[in-house]
## 1
Amino acid sequence: MRIIEQLESEVRGYVRSFPAIFDTAKGSYLWDEHGNRFIDFFAGAGTLNYGHNNPLLTKAVIEYLERDGIVHGLDKATVAKTKFLQKFYDTVLSPRNLEYKVQFTGPTGTNAVETALKLARMVKRRSNIIAFTNGYHGLTLGSLAVTGNNFYRDEFYGMRLNADHMPFDGYFGPDVNTIEYLRRFLSDGSSGIDLPAAIIVETVQGEGGIHVASDEWLQELEQLCHDFDILLIIDDIQVGNGRTGTFFSFERAGIKPDMVVLSKSIGGGMPLAMLLMRPELDQWKPGEHTGTFRGNNLAFIAATEALSYWDNEDLAEAVAYKGQIMEEELTRIAEKYADLEVNVRGVGMVWGLEMPRTGFTGEVLTEAFEKGLVIETAGADDEVLKFLPALTIEEETLREGMQIIDQAIGDLLKKKEEMRTGDTQ
Ligand SMILES: Cc1ncc(COP(=O)(O)O)c(C=O)c1O
């Protein structure tokens, strides 16, 4: 760890939350250099929906490397790319009657977001973009402008330009329809909000603290976009790829966004990001938006293999089943520690346990880590414990992880009580 502390920038984050030197990983387990085992409820922030080193994916990648398959190809045609596109069309797009064109962007999520925003502005000839409170879309400057949390933003970056934030579903509680609120702003030429080229939204806000938009809200948002000629961009980077139970997270609402951004689990753990767009929006000139690492061939190989999980309904059924276990377990924990006024939110296999007591969530994270569980916090003040296990996690491991959380909260409360009574004696 000394070399990391000596050389790696102060910006490092997760190494502070999880102070171990990790070495190997398989499925839903991580091992550190001393052989200590950890259950992974973090899954690379949604990158490892198919688990660490999924044997199907690893085998395909090793075989590809061993036969000297092209690794770096810019956006040249490769066998790996054609196979991926065919598989994506056959398994994902065609069965859902989606006629998107596919653009491979630079390899991380924010690259896809930047591309979507740039194209939307180009096509609509408008510069404003509307995003939502608590939204998270990445940290390069364009994506940052549509990200809510001001921990990441600073006035110096000029971040207020060309982006407005509006209240997400439920922001003012269950009784305020925030789409009506937005509609009022857009209808009034004197509201100070310019007609945007696009609205970008997550159907379930991951980093923002597991806020789930209702189906009706998403449908009303789509209608509003039609009414005002605004492009609807769904950011499915964290909660796409089956996380909510269907391949795309918006399927439950029956909407068809104009653009979708995908990354994280689409590459099965390898860097890959994509923009999907309605064909008429594909107005780029050849080479107008490029990047050296567009379309990583190793990721295509892993991604093609990962998509075989969508050849049938097995994974979707498993997500529904294990999602229910997560909901039941978290509800049980919330009831057991009712004094903490815990709030449970989620859908599919993305769940949040909001614990309003200041700093408590971080303490649970640390206690759980000491007991062998890796889990992340989310929300504006890190007040939410975010449950994001691999979709392929075994039921037994899932239950074991939930048990660790239960024990971590119980032990923490006990320690606090002991300190309190110790203090008063
Ligand atoms: C919804 C969403 N969009 C965009 C991003 C940015 O992706 P990346 O960190 O790969 O740039 C993230 C990352 O967590 C995300 O959750």
## 2
Amino acid sequence: MKAAYIEETGPPENIIYGDLPQPTPHGSEVLVKVAAVALNPVDTYIRNGANYWELPKPFVVGCDLAGTVEAVGPDAVRVKVGDRVWATNQGLMGRQGTFAEYCAVDECWLHPTPESVSDATAAACALVGITAHLGLFRDAKLQAGESVFVHGGTGGVGSMVVQMAKAAGARAITTGGNEEKCARCKELGADVAVNYKTQDVAEAVKAFAPAGVNVVWETLREPDFDQLVSYLAERGRLVLMAGRDARPPFPVGPFYVKGCSLHGVVMFKASPEEMRTCAQNMNRWMAEGKLQAQIGQTLPLSEAAAAHRMQEENTLGNTGTLAGKIVLQP
Ligand SMILES: NC(=O)c1ccc[n+]([C@@H]2O[C@H](COP(=O)([O-])OP(=O)(O)OC[C@H]3O[C@@H](n4cnc5c(N)ncnc54)[C@H](OP(=O)(O)O)[C@@H]3O)[C@@H](O)[C@H]2O)c1
């Protein structure tokens, strides 16, 4: 089969698009014929040698996939041949990745793809949607009628946070790096989209929620806590999920005096059961059209190296050339 893989960690050019043996599903694994995969910033950190855990060799890059069950291992009971499925959390914690024509995935990570939902949509919502759901509902316990602020409403996670907040009956204010991105944020349901390059975000948040927002979701790798804490209402919840090396100052007094709480979210440590809870709501919202994929680029799988380069330029280089996910198709 064709796959995008690395023999050594390093720059995007280390990604080889070539032939690897098709995996055989063992135990409760399922062989998925991949129709679409999506790229995430974490894929680029791992490929670059972040060294969070030992990688299989060769290592197929990628966490997300959607496709059709081709074969099932002897102990697989949850799916059958021909089922359409999606998954995330592959290529992580030592597992093999998804950027290939076929993947063997333990069935505990597989979710059914609703009939009306495309493989590209399911793959593009996978990791970012599970992350947003865990943070908003398991951790920040967002309620209908509350309000949410998130940076980057057309970003991978930001676009999910905006849409899930709205689907849950909350109000959402977000940012975009240009007018086109702000317009897209509104299409995704944001009540307010602020151009952070030309407008004063703090003023816009104050106008949107004079007593502060209930949940602030930070997607940036260098959070400005003075700013974020000032956005929070009494009993507000601040969600963090990026910036492993960030060590910014923190305004202790303004935070605790409002009775706020801080939540760190890491998708890949959620259990399969926790992810299934997220996936059930995501599937319902995708089928109802309330959760759309924010796809910025669609490429053939053979372009995996170029896709990594583009993602890295945006995540680390802040070039702003991408609006959302890169989806690749074998
Ligand atoms: N902990 C976890 O489980 C987890 C899960 C997923 C992702 N992450 C991490 O979360 C981060 C975001 O991931 P992602 O997939 O959402 O990335 P992404 O798709 O690249 O989105 C990043 C967003 O940040 C916005 N942005 C950049 N600089 C900004 C600034 N100065 N002010 C306002 N907005 C700004 C961009 O907006 P514009 O395009 O409008 O400039 C873009 O929408 C990454 O570091 C990723 O590794 C962590």
